[in-house]
Amino acid sequence: MKKPTSLIGLTSFLCFISILLVMTFNSHSQNVGTPKSPEIDFKNFPIASFDEPLPTESQARVAREAKNKKFNSKAKSISESSTQIFTVMDWDIGLPTFPIERSFAVVIGRITEAKAFLSEDKTAIYSEFKVQIDSVLKNDDRCPIQPETSLIVGRDGGRVRLPSGKIVVSWINHQNMPAVGGKYALFLTHELPRGGDGGTDFYIVTAYELANGNVFPMDDIPSGHPIAAIKGRSESSFLNDLQSLLGSSPKLR
Questions:
Q1: What is the rounded distance in angstroms from the CA atom of residue 180 to the CA atom of residue 131?
Q2: Which run of H or of E encompasses 234?
Q3: What are phi and psi of 209, to 5 degrees?
Q4: Which domains, and CATH codes, for the chain?
């Protein structure tokens, strides 16, 4: 017996709706909370211990508590059920090759130490890097930087080792971390990575590694972005252009 034409049409329509719903669900499930694959190598991301105690010395303890609070968020606390924390931000949209206007200071220095920390509420991870300053190309009037001294600079993201030994990684799209031992031109701001005034603390806007006479963007910016075009450029050409934009040769203060 032939099925009525209207029934066949209804059956086809319901099948189409079912397929559409499945496709919609799959599309959303692939893009919530984590990318399909990591965009960077996490080898330069420092690792914090989940149960790391605060410093015992009072001044250092107060300073660390204040920094930890700056990274508190409304997210779920990191736990054994956590896998990775991936955040998409538009930080690199419109970012020029030399983000001088967005930087309170521009320095050249070598990374001598890297550490990661948990926010006070254990919802976020952030990293800090000790930089041995070689030269100051643009100085900050509020917090002047001296060459041949050390400076601590921070960045959102890092890794944490949980009590079980499991490691959870946190990062922002396209952002990488400087490598210990590497020499970098660092563009620094006092603005917190997710917005707000970070006080006297410095945070990395972006950076370029200076290695073997050439320049390489630290961040994994997609091709087509002005920063990506710097890869492999000569260090002398890079510094000449940067100094020209700053007005003249660098003043070491």
A1: 9
A2: strand 233-234
A3: -85, 135
A4: 42-246 (2.40.50.120)
Query: Given the structure tokens 């930890």, which residue do they identify?
Result: 68
How does pLDDT run across 170-184, given as a tens digit for each residue? 999 999 999 999 999
Beta carbons of 43 and 156 less than 8 angstroms apart? no
Give the pair of three-digit tokens for residue 106: 């521009």
Buried b (16+ CB within 10 A) or exposed e, 175-213: bbbbbeebbbbbbbbbbbbeeeebeebbbbbbbbbbeee
8 Å CB contact between 64 and 117: yes
Q: What is the mean pLDDT of the chain?
A: 85
Query: Using CA atoms, how far apart are residues 248 and 253, in angstroms rounded to an integer?
Result: 14
**Rounded to whole angstroms, how far apart are CA atoms 100 and 194?**
19
- Quote the pTM value: 0.82
